[in-house]
Amino acid sequence: MEQCGLSEIVFIPNGIPPHKQVESGVSKEDRLHMVELAVNPLPRCSVSRIEIDRDGPSYTIDTIRALKDDYPQGICFIVGADRLLELNTWREPEALLQSVPFVIAPRSGVCLHAFDVTPYENAQIVPLDMEEVDLSSSAMRERIRSGLPIDGEVPTEIVEYIEKHGLYQGAMTESKSLQQGG
User: Fold this and answer.
1) Can you list the positions of beta strands (E) in the chain?
2) Which residue spans within 28-161 are E strands per DSSP?
3) Which of 57, 118, 143, 165 would staple 148 via disulfide (CB 3.0–4.6 Å)?
4) CATH 1.10.10.410: does it fit domain 9-173?
5) Residue 74 — left, alpha, or beta (φ > 0 → left; ψ -120 to 50 → alpha)?
6) Which pLDDT tens digit goes with each residue over 76-115?
7) Contact present, 18 and 180 (Cβ < 8 Å)
């Protein structure tokens, strides 16, 4: 927040991921509630239902277009560097890159020079000055399915919610639309 001079960070859980598998038995509301549990103690952070309430797949470009009206002071998009490298699988990638600045969190194995080429060279990309983040939600779900603990990796309230509701015990199912992500 300080590095980019942001007044607020809004977390947006995905409603129907367009290019990811959907976890069987885990509702949009479950995912929303877990994000709320993680974010509630953080000052100047909130959670938006914009994608949870949307019918059909949630595309980042649609969300950014909708949020620009709500935040006339401007917005940026915070994402892991590894995910931004998958931009070619997202809907309207060129328009997306021109729509907002991208703040990227460093990820293991991703060199910042990867963003010096097309289509990134004309985009505003701001790398965060922080340690590489080597944590993924898919790895956490796999640990749960394998019966391994996730304590210390995610907030205690989320571990308790997952255990109470028996989440991430089942198999993955295909998302309705695997054509274009983001």
Assistant:
1) 9-11, 22-23, 45-47, 77-80, 102-105, 125-127, 172-173
2) 45-47, 77-80, 102-105, 125-127
3) 143
4) no
5) left
6) 999 999 999 999 999 999 999 999 999 999 998 899 999 9
7) yes
Of 95, 14, 11, 9, nearest to 54 by C-alpha is 14
Q: How far apart are CA 138 and CA 144, in angstroms?
A: 10
Q: Both tokens of residue 22?
A: 């959907």
- How far is it, in rounded angstroms, from Cα 85 to Cα 112? 10
DSSP code at position 89: G
Spatial distance between the Cα atoms of 104 and 112, rounded to a whole number of angstroms: 10
Nearest to 162 by CA among 151, 174, 176: 151
Whole-angstrom distance, CA of residue 181 vs CA of residue 172: 17
Closest among 35, 23, 43, 45 to 161, alpha carbons compared: 35
State how beta strands 77-80 and 102-105 pair: parallel
Q: pLDDT tens digit string along 24-68? A: 788 999 999 999 999 999 999 999 999 999 988 889 999 999 999
